[in-house]
Amino acid sequence: MKRRHIALTLRRLREERTELTAAEASRSVDKNSSWLSKVELAQVRPGVNDVAALLRLYGMDGPAADAVLQVTREAGQKGWWRPYDEVMPDWFVKYVGLESAAATLRTYECQMVPGLLQTEEYARAAIRHAPVCETGSSNRMEQQVALRMERQRILDSVDPPQLIVVLDEGALRRLVGGPATMRDQCERLIEAADRPNVELQIVEFEQGVGFDGSFVILDFPPPPDPFPLGPIDDRVVYVDTLAGALYLDLPGQLAAYADVFESLRAQALPARKSRDLLRSIAKALTS
Questions:
Q1: Same domain (yes/no): 70, 86
Q2: 264 neighbors 210 (Cβ within 8 angstroms)
Q3: Where does the record place the DUF5753 domain (predicted)?
Q4: 75, 95, 113 - which closes a domain
Q5: pTM, whole model, 2 decimals?
Q6: Which residues, other chains included, contact 196 with Cβ-Cβ below 8 Å and sequence gap of 6+?
């Protein structure tokens, strides 16, 4: 997330304070022509000296420049998830970093319980039987399960994100791991829904088609004062695909997914009735 703040800030400074293209600005700080474009897309993390050179080029100094440089230093720190790098594809490493930094996560799932709310046994069964995922050794699979459990710690942090989940009923009727595992998973969802930072709604079968495709909308907190240029409206849509993931941040893309999410929330049962449905499913799995 800090890398995104740096990326957005450097792009806005270049566009608002100069008439330079990204290629021209790159060459001005002794970089190749494509370097700054990658920095501004958060694909490459710039060093502190590189950012300092760009700030001088853009005429930025004083406390605002110091704040940008401080965030640049922080962006270079290793995330808690680094010990799990070997069991994550590159595209998911990026997601875990974004998830850990988000202020709000709006999630729609049509097939599975979201990873942040899975029990350990559900996660293990989901990873073991994933149709397109080669888990390799049992040790590798257990590392993947451990990573999923570790991700959930953000919900217990001092300043936890707001997690808003819309879940298709089909995700609850699919017996991942068997009846006992699904019963425990439903009970876990009931407990989670009682948390002040978690909202959970279920789209019933009787609502019809629903939406064919899971996604997450991540909103991030503003950068610290006295960061230049004022608040940054920072939001990303994450879409998991067969061959990787999509990270969408164009205004039209963000608006489309936000509209779909609100439409799904309107179709879904209210929170209390969603908990009632979970209790009913859990009870049926007990008998």
A1: no
A2: yes
A3: 94-279
A4: 75
A5: 0.83
A6: none
